[in-house]
Write a structure and sequence with these properties.
With 163 residues, the chain is mainly alpha-helical. The protein has one domain: Orthogonal Bundle (Arc Repressor Mutant, subunit A), CATH 1.10.10.10. It is built from seven helices and two strands, in the order ααααββααα. The protein has a two-stranded antiparallel sheet with strand order 1-2. A hairpin with a 2-residue loop joins strand 1 and strand 2. The N and C termini lie close together (10 Å). This is MarR family winged helix-turn-helix transcriptional regulator.
Length: 163
C-alpha cells in the first residue's frame, strides 16, 4: 500500500489553483470587455485568422453555437468585430476584427502578458516556456477522443493488474 500524496502533489488541485488564479487575473484585465476572458479568446482567435466562420470559431473555442451568437452580438455592438457573409458560403458568417478590435486586443495582450509574468514569476524563464508548451500539447488533445466510460474501464483494468 502506498503512502497518500500531499494535496500539493495532486494534479487536479494544482491545476485548479493555478487556473483559478489565472481566471481572477484575466477577469480583472478583461474588465469591460464583452464576454470577459471568453471574449478575449474570440478576439485572439479571429486575429490569428483561425476559424473564420462563426460556427468554426464556436467549435474551436468549445463554445455552444447559440452562446457564440450572443457573445459575437455583444462584441460586435462594442465595435470590436464585424460579421460578413462568407463569399464561399453565403449562409455562413465570417468574423473579422475592426481597427478598434485590433487595438483593444493589443492592449489586452500586453496587460495579460504582464499578469501572466507575475503569476509565473516563481518559475525560471525556461520552465515557463516548458509549462506553456506542455499545457498547449494537453489542450490540443481532443477530450472526446476517449469517453469517460473508456477512461474508467482503463483505470479499473490497471487497478486489477496491480499487485
Amino acid at each position: 500500500m502506498s503512502t497518500p500524496r500531499q494535496v500539493e502533489a495532486d494534479l487536479g488541485w494544482a491545476l485548479g489553483r493555478v487556473a483559478r488564479a489565472h481566471l481572477r487575473t484575466a477577469q480583472t484585465v478583461m474588465g469591460g470587455l464583452p464576454g470577459g476572458p471568453r471574449g478575449y479568446q474570440v478576439l485572439a482567435a479571429v486575429a490569428r485568422g483561425e476559424p473564420s466562420t462563426q460556427l468554426a470559431l464556436a467549435r474551436k473555442l468549445g463554445v455552444d453555437r447559440t452562446v457564440m451568437t450572443y457573445l459575437l452580438d455583444e462584441i460586435q455592438a462594442a465595435g470590436l468585430v464585424e460579421r460578413r457573409p462568407d463569399p464561399a458560403d453565403r449562409r455562413a458568417r465570417r468574423v473579422e476584427l475592426t481597427d478598434a478590435g485590433r487595438a483593444r486586443l493589443c492592449d489586452l495582450e500586453r496587460r495579460l502578458g504582464d499578469a501572466e509574468a507575475h503569476l509565473l514569476a516563481p518559475l525560471e524563464p525556461a520552465e515557463q516556456d516548458t509549462l506553456r508548451g506542455l499545457l498547449a500539447r494537453l489542450a490540443a488533445v481532443d477530450p472526446d477522443q476517449a469517453s469517460a466510460c473508456q477512461v474508467a474501464q482503463d483505470i479499473a483494468a490497471c487497478d486489477a493488474d496491480a499487485p
